[in-house]
Amino acid sequence: MTLDLRGRAATLLDAYRQKGLKIATAESCTGGLVAALLTEISGSSAVVERGFVTYSNEAKAEMIGVAADLIAAYGAVSEPVARAMAEGALAHSRADVAVGITGVAGPTGGTATKPVGLVHFGLARKGSPTLHLERRYGDLGRENVRRRAVEDALSLLEQAIG
Fold it and tell me: Where do the domains of the chain lie?
């Protein structure tokens, strides 16, 4: 990840550390990149509680409790599943804030209704309603879609600490 992202991550971790808050991630299309970015920073163990890489539908269900019927009804890349991923990461960890990320990074896997570059995010915080963010980055290439998703996940985590 770039120096700019590392700097944002370090600032984010400092803010969470000062408030005594912990973070969990539930990542599908980013494959753990958010957790990896955060844990590149020395001292991140005071803030990063755990990360779940829930790439398959089975992993979403088994690791963080996303209901299989929810995935069947809406698809893995959807608002309800992104919300459930964030809520599941919060419920299956000791974190205070959790971000869930699911999308189509490409170059394959897109459809007319769920094109390459579509990413859904959920942000769950204890005592607050779960937020949702949808991004349609377009077919920027797999690496760029994933990088943009990491940037937006950081933005959500920054917003959560306000």
Answer: 3-161
Tell me which architecture the domain covering 3-161 has in CATH: Alpha-Beta Complex (3.90)
* DSSP secondary structure of the chain: --HHHHHHHHHHHHHHHHHT--EEEEESTTTTHHHHHHHTSTTGGGTEEEEEE--SHHHHHHHH---HHHHHHH-SSSHHHHHHHHHHHHHTSS-SEEEEEEE--SSS---SSS-TTEEEEEEEETTSPPEEEEEE--S--HHHHHHHHHHHHHHHHHHHH-
Tell me the per-residue pLDDT of 40-86, one tens digit each, with 9 for 90 and over. 999 999 999 999 999 999 999 999 999 999 999 999 999 999 999 99
Contact 120/133 with Cβ under 8 angstroms?
yes
Residue that is written with structure tokens 């955060």 in the block: 38
Supply the pLDDT for residue 114.
Answer: 97
The structure's pTM equals 0.97
